Amino acid sequence: MSLSLSPGSSLSAVPSRTAAWGGRHLAVPLLIVLLHAVLVNLPATRDAARWLTDENMPVEMVTFVLMLATTWIAARLAVRLRRTDTLASAFYGLFAAGMFFIAMEEVSWGQWLVGFETPAEMRAQNVQGEFNLHNLQGAHELIELMRVVFGVGSLIGIAVGALAVARNVAVPAKLLPWFLIITVLSVADMVFAYVTVPHRISWTVSELMETVELLIAIATLFYVQHHARRLLRREPGIG
User: Fold this and answer.
1) DSSP reduced 3-state for 12
2) Contact assessment for residue 106 and residue 71, using Cβ atoms and an 8 Å cutoff
3) Any bridge partners for residue 4, and if so which?
4) Residue 173: other Cβ atoms inside 10 A
5) What is the DSSP letter of 210?
6) Residue 155 and residue 172: Cα distance in Å, rounded?
7) Are 176 and 156 in contact, with CB atoms under 8 Å apart?
8) Would you report the helix, strand and coil content of the chain in percent, each value rounded to 5?
């Protein structure tokens, strides 16, 4: 049993389901990361692990779909809050736009789904010759930093949860394991470019970055779902 606050009620005893989910929010991202780390380090499974995280393969496609789902829910939150919390509404509007942009960048704006050639001028400036912005020369080098900024920003979002003004946008504390793992791995990937560590460690962390992006997609979906349950509960289709 654990104590929980229900809306409009005092402290009440409820089953330890919340605690169980707290454990899952720690176990699931750890298992995802450890499984990928093991698979990519074993010669027998390395090719399969790399295939899973290669361009337009399962991990990237799942990341894309989850980010689109996050975009949809965040957009609905922006609409729902436009009259009652304009700041939160603006935040979710920007968040939805940002997630949509990142999702489309993941699939090069549908280039490999629909099939079209990269314009010659962009191909010459894109390190992978694709129709996207994040791989342009100069922008590509910022990807590591953006992962770190996202992770740190999410941890700040948890820290401000006690502020009443942030109630509708704060990151729930139960997601701390997700964003902590994201932040630690992202910081490590950036630092290892300047600090000498055993090659196997730096190489493994680098190989995990596509999985880190999957963790970001999962965690952000959980984040918007958390607020959707409170604010969109009267609308069907939001769990």
Assistant:
1) strand
2) no
3) 12
4) 13
5) H
6) 10
7) no
8) 70, 5, 25
Q: Which two tokens stand for residue 154?
A: 């999410």
CA-to-CA dists, residue 173 to 79, 155, 162, angstroms: 25, 9, 10
Please tell me the distance from the alpha carbon of residue 62 to that of residue 215, in angstroms, as a whole number: 11
Q: Is the pLDDT of residue 159 over 50?
A: yes
State the Cα angle at 94 between 93 and 96, rounded to 5°.
65
3-state secondary structure of 228: helix
Q: Which of 97-106, 113-122, 199-208 has the highest mean pLDDT?
A: 199-208
Copy the structure tokens of residue 172: 């729930």
Query: Cα–Cα distance between 38 and 49 in angstroms, integer?
Result: 9
CA distance 130 to 159: 38
Report which listed range, 8-12, 18-22, 202-206, is most confident: 202-206
Q: Specify the residue for token string 């992962």.
A: 147
119 pLDDT tier (thresholds 50, 70, 90): confident
Phi-psi region of 6 (alpha: psi -120 to 50; beta: other; left: phi over 0): beta
What letter would DSSP give residue 163?
Answer: S
Q: What is the mean pLDDT of residues 136-143?
A: 70
